[in-house]
Amino acid sequence: MTDVDEQGRPEPPLAAGEVETLLGFLDFLRATFEWKCAGLDAAGLRATVGVSTMTLGGMLKHLAYVEDHWFSRWLHGHGPRPPWSTVDWDADPDWEWHSAAGDTPEQLRVLWRDTVARSRAQVADALADGGPGRLARRTWADGRAPSLRWMLCHLIEEYARHNGHADLIREAVDGLTGE
């Protein structure tokens, strides 16, 4: 049974195996990010801090892209799906960040939640087909492929970094503070 904190986030297990610990921390960080974006309207999701152009809406779309990029495209070798398949990435390599301002809060939240749900299923499939050492279907130019273990650690790092950004932006929007 998973303990849940006062914000509704699943606590990572204190004593578990490698996979349960990695997935526990990734789900905790996903829930932290969702909490930081919860209840905000379009203006709140477009707010910036200082000179940065980073927004919570941009982070929702960026993290949806990162989830899809690693777990669908790299891990399973699938081609890009909409909306990523319609983007001229050469013309705008930061499209997910910029285009979020034109999306509604509901569109951003649904995109992120649906992508996370797909990622969970894709990770479960890979765990059943090789465990955390399962190599990605795609490879780097030199032929090496990252393992699922590497990708999970990378996603944990990605969420941890952006949760720090989300803390600052959310506090600037309405004073919400906390982990």
TrEMBL record:
<protein>
    <submittedName>
        <fullName>DinB family protein</fullName>
    </submittedName>
</protein>
<dbReference type="InterPro" id="IPR034660">
    <property type="entry name" value="DinB/YfiT-like"/>
</dbReference>
<dbReference type="Pfam" id="PF04978">
    <property type="entry name" value="MST"/>
</dbReference>
<dbReference type="InterPro" id="IPR007061">
    <property type="entry name" value="MST-like"/>
</dbReference>
